[in-house]
Design brief:
The complex is a heterodimer of chains A (330) and B (355). Chain A is an all-alpha fold. Chain A has eleven helices and two strands. In chain A, helix 3 (81-112) packs antiparallel against helix 8 (216-245), helix 4 (115-128) packs across helix 6 (175-199) and helix 8 packs antiparallel against helix 11 (285-329). Chain B has 355 residues and is an alpha/beta fold. In chain B, the strands form two sheets. In chain B, strands 2-1-3-10-4-8-6-7 form an eight-stranded mixed β-sheet, with helices on both faces. The chains are: A mainly alpha (330), B alpha/beta (355).
Chain lengths: 330, 355
């Protein structure tokens, strides 16, 4: 067929033409697309720094440790510490709950569940990610908040009340309520990735494990989990990225306070939520710049998390290749 | 084949969303707007959510009478000020008069004028199991609640104002707006006038830092937070408070009365104040003792327009309509009509538009 095409001079000329134009065209277009992506990121970074400049030059690096946020035009004192703390605490708690939960769901869906219910349950878990965040936030105000206030927080306090993080009055709005919302958001993301990873565990290895007399639990612990470790870590960091960046739902339930409070029941704020809540109606240029400064910190945060995820996934890949070649050698 | 179809469908869907997002980010348009053609150009405005219900009435009425379409985005007072400062809209609307700094910024591209065009109030609302409805409160007590000094509903200060009422010992949870809001301005302006300590620690602004309490987003968020939290108290716009079924406390005015929040008492407050500032700003927070039946937390909403504009004729017509004929729709929507001297001051300002 190849020879037939080439033997026809007209077709050959045409092919030569497309060859000559096609390759550079492809190179040019795809290069342009790549350049565009780089330009957009650089542009966003530049714009955020430019917008934040008045705050950067006024507060300097001390902004990060200042525990105050007072937009009153007569005071105008801004700092990122309350929101860094809030972002850290809520995301950390969310991942603390979401990661084990997601791994459990994934193990159930790939190893334990009857085949015909796997797909429907998996779809339902994925659909959790499709709930608009503002709806989740409303649910947080109307259902979760009162439940936290009436049931969960008093229970925590009666058992672990000696810990300062469970001190103070229960509140429907605060770090803990926001953390639970974030847990719900992070779970489907982590689950869908870990499930995929678990499915790639070679059946031979599992069968070998069973053949050696392992129970199902032992097989999961000795084969599935170690084999999928890099994938699990990568998935968890993806979920962490989601939790750090979530703005609207958190703004609805965290209670918008600009001060660090040691109690998890207390109201607080996160970087993203503070920006979402206040950017539209700032009282001064300095406040706007300070919000952009928060945005810059969030951007740096996101980049760091992304890089860590990449490094881990990369390392996992190398390890995979190594084990595969080892297996082949054997 | 089917995969390709799916891809095309997704692309089309994404495109639709992108277009919809572009449209809604700049301004939310009224659905009835049809280009009126001819020589008149449509007006675009943004700002205060408080004035939005009255505005939507004005929009439909004005477009049918004057054949000028008005598009309004209820994005909040702060957003309105920002948009008019950058001249991305023809007019901005704000519940708080511009600060000096904001005037300087807005004047950078040519002078702007600020004209009062609607009159309403901000109303506290509470949810306390076991407490009577229409509790009486004073400005001092409200200030102390928001300063975290009065922390229980059976505090002697509250009991003194409500002799004989059974008050539970429930903890008070003050609720405030975490986003920038004209209601926060009206509320803090009132409390700062009443209480020097409140003025020095919290101050008057669309966004402040309260030492205690829970922040919620927008009127709906505040109402939901109050509804879900036993022992809470918050503040919302008058129209919003009346339409939602929250219990409203009666707040003591400077005449020592406890007027019911509503159009009548807001009107009485406006009638008692004749002092109009150099930029047409009018504060109703410091009412004289002679103001009988006046609601103590009343507030004006302002329109902010550039003096130099290509749409001067249309703009003048619209503000004249809003401060004149348009006022008659106010009472049905819980807005009080503007007093005569305010309309007169507005007329002078309108005359300056277009040079």
């Amino acid at each position: 067929m190849e020879a037939g095409t080439l033997s026809n001079p007209v077709l050959r000329a045409r092919r030569n033409l497309t060859d000559r134009i096609g390759d550079p065209l492809l190179r040019g277009l795809s290069g342009l697309a790549a350049a565009l992506a780089v330009a957009v990121i650089a542009g966003i970074a530049y714009e955020v720094i430019h917008l934040a400049w008045p705050a950067i030059s006024k507060f300097g690096i001390g902004f990060v440790t200042t525990n105050d946020w007072n937009p009153n035009p007569l005071v105008q004192r801004f700092g990122a510490a309350p929101f860094l703390y809030g972002t850290f605490v809520t995301s950390f708690i969310a991942i603390l709950f979401a990661a084990p939960l997601s791994i459990a769901i994934s193990i159930y869906l790939t190893e334990l569940a009857p085949r015909r219910i796997r797909r429907p349950v998996a779809t339902l878990v994925d659909m959790l990610a499709a709930i608009p965040t503002v709806i989740l936030g409303l649910w947080g105000i109307l259902v979760l908040g009162p439940f936290m206030h009436d049931t969960i927080e008093p229970a925590l306090q009666s058992v672990l009340g000696f810990l300062p993080i469970f001190s103070g009055d229960p509140s429907a709005f605060g770090y803990l309520t926001a953390a639970v919302i974030l847990t719900i958001m992070a779970t489907p993301i982590i689950t869908s990735v870990t499930r995929e990873v678990f499915e790639t565990v070679p059946g031979d290895l599992k069968e070998a494990s069973y053949a050696l007399g392992a129970t199902r639990w032992e097989m999961v612990r000795q084969v599935v989990l170690p084999y999928s470790r890099p994938g699990i870590v990568g998935a968890t960091i993806l979920g962490l990225g989601r939790a750090i960046g979530e703005a609207i739902a958190v703004a609805q339930v965290i209670g918008g306070a600009g001060l660090i409070n040691g109690s998890l029941f207390h109201t607080g704020g996160t970087l993203a939520a503070q920006i979402a809540s206040q950017f539209q109606g700032t009282t001064s240029e300095l406040q706007k710049a300070s919000l952009a400064y928060l945005g810059l910190i969030l951007l740096v945060f996101a980049v760091i998390v992304n890089v860590i995820a990449r490094v881990i996934v990369q390392r996992g890949k190398i390890k995979d290749v190594v084990t595969e070649t080892e297996a082949a050698a054997l | 084949m089917s995969k390709r179809l799916l891809g095309a469908l997704i692309a089309a869907l994404a495109l639709t969303f992108a277009i919809a997002a572009c449209g809604s980010s700049s301004s939310t348009s009224s659905s009835s707007s049809s280009s009126s053609g001819g020589s008149t150009s449509p007006l675009v405005g943004a700002g205060s959510t408080l004035v939005a219900p009255l505005m939507s009435k004005w929009q439909s009425d004005f477009s049918s009478k004057a054949e000028i379409t008005v598009t309004y985005g209820a994005i909040g007072s702060g957003g309105g000020i920002e948009q008019i400062t950058s001249r991305t809209v023809d007019f901005g609307a704000s519940d708080a008069p511009l600060t000096e700094e904001q005037f300087e910024e807005a004047d950078a591209q040519g002078d702007v004028e600020q004209i009062p065009w609607a009159l309403s109030g901000t109303v506290p609302a509470y949810n306390v199991k076991g407490a009577p409805s229409n509790l009486k409160l004073s400005g001092e007590v409200l200030a102390d609640i928001y300063l975290g000094k009065v922390t229980q509903w059976n505090d002697p200060a509250i009991a003194k104002l409500n002799p004989g009422a059974s008050l539970p010992s429930t903890k008070i949870t003050p609720v405030y707006r975490s986003d920038g809001s004209g209601d926060t301005y009206a509320f803090t302006n009132y409390l700062s006038t009443i209480d020097p300590e409140f003025e020095s620690t919290v101050g008057t602004s669309t966004q402040v830092k309260f030492p205690t309490g829970v922040g919620a987003e927008k009127n709906d968020g505040v109402a939901a937070a109050i509804g879900q939290t036993d022992g809470s108290i918050g503040y919302v716009g008058l129209a919003y408070a009346i339409s939602s079924e929250l219990s409203m406390p009666l707040v003591e005015n400077s005449a020592g009365e406890f007027p019911e929040p509503g159009v009548k008492s807001v009107e009485a407050a406006a009638a008692a104040v004749s002092k109009i500032g150099p930029n047409n700003e009018i504060s109703l927070a410091d009412l004289p003792a002679s103001a009988k039946g006046a609601y103590p937390i009343s507030t004006y909403t302002y329109v902010i327009v550039p003096l130099e504009t290509e749409k001067a004729t249309e703009m003048k017509k619209f503000i004249e309509y809003a401060t004149g004929e348009g006022q008659s729709y106010g009472p049905d929507l819980d807005f009080a009509p503007l007093p005569k001297q305010v309309i007169a001051a507005g007329k002078k300002a309108i005359a300056k538009i277009g040079g």
